[in-house]
Amino acid sequence: MKVFLLLLALLAVAQSTYHPGNYARWPRFPEEFRFSYRGTIHGYHCVKIIEPSDPVWKNGDNFFCSKAGNGIRNPGMVWSYAGPKHGMRCFRVYEPSEPKHYNWHDNWLCVPHNSPYHLRFFNHNVKYSKCRCVQWIEPSDPHTWRDNFMCNKD
Q1: 74 near 97, Cβ under 8 Å?
Q2: Where is the signal peptide (predicted)?
Q3: What is the predicted pLDDT for the residue at 115?
Q4: pTM to 2 decimals?
């Protein structure tokens, strides 16, 4: 009986200190990341990509997503259309072809500092061989959003 109670106590301690996100792996980039211009993607963690000053990007249907599921952690991505987020590692997202009054100069995608991602946004066709990329495409935007990529330096 003492052994049973001891095992029960150990199990209770183990369950109270186990947090699945602590042991889950990070999503693989770019294989487990997607950009969607049609809303969130089922089975993925998504962050809304929005620019309220831009008539195409203010509608809220653009998302950058990472695969979700057992054993895969949420990478904690945060979007900002008003400068980088304090306490996070942030990467500027800028499309110079957009009109200046659409305010794409202050948009950032941020991740926690413990994230393995070191991202870079390319607003032209990327040919940088040391990066792996996910295309960001918004077909309804006339300002060259067909050649943009979010890349991670391995």
Answers
A1: no
A2: 1-16
A3: 97
A4: 0.83
What's the total number of domains in the chain? 1
Residue 92: domain span:
33-152
What span, in angstroms and rounded, lies between the C-alpha atoms of 101 and 129? 34
Q: Strand, helix or coil at 48?
A: strand
Task: Tell me what pLDDT residue 130 has.
Answer: 64
Both tokens of 66, joined, read 């990472």
Q: Is 134 helix (H, G, I), strand (E, B) or coil?
A: strand
pLDDT value of position 55: 94
For residue 121, tell me if it sits in a domain. yes
Splitting the chain (154 residues) into consecutive groups of 10 residues, what average pLDDT does each group show? Answer: 54 44 88 98 98 94 97 98 98 94 96 96 73 91 88 85
Tell me the C-alpha distance between 31 and 103, whole Å: 30
Residue 15 lies in a domain: no
With CA atoms as reference, report the closest residue to 109 among 70, 58, 68, 152: 152
Tokens 């960001």, residue? 136
Both structure tokens of 101 = 């009054």
